[in-house]
Write a structure and sequence with these properties.
With 124 residues, this protein is an all-beta fold. The chain has strands spanning 3-7, 10-13, 18-25, 32-39, 46-52, 58-60, 68-73, 78-83, 92-100, 111-114, 118-123.
């Protein structure tokens, strides 16, 4: 099992920045892809970004391009999402997830492990 715990969410003004963290434990991650998804109230879960743990290759959803950056700290087994130029439409619960490196990065069904989420609220 892999356990994932998100943190770093909060309330921020439009145009501001947040850095989300996902602390992972329970397994080695050399064969994993880890990602961020988000879910706004009444909407489907949306892919934000993913990273292959070993090689660092990244994938970005349309909502993340130009504004969000995914990266990891191997020594800390921690995944991050740096979010800049935040907009009110970024308001959502953000979830960290882990799955196989050969899965489709943007497909939530390919991820086996999920955190509980951290709330991001962007005010206008």
């Amino acid at each position: 099992q892999v356990q994932l715990v998100e943190s770093g969410g909060g309330l921020v003004q439009a145009g501001g920045s947040l850095r989300l963290s996902c602390a992972a434990s329970g397994r080695a991650f050399s064969g994993y892809r880890m990602g961020w998804f988000r879910r706004a109230p009444g909407k489907e879960r949306e892919f934000v970004a993913a990273i292959n743990w070993s090689e660092g290759r990244t994938y970005s959803g349309e909502c993340a391009k130009g504004r969000f950056t995914i990266f990891r700290d191997n020594a800390r087994n921690t995944l991050y999402l740096q979010m800049n130029s935040l907009k009110p439409e970024d308001t959502a619960i953000y979830y960290c997830a882990a799955g196989g490196v050969f899965s489709r990065p943007a497909a939530d069904v390919e991820y086996d492990y999920w955190g509980q989420g951290t709330q991001v609220t962007v005010s206008s």
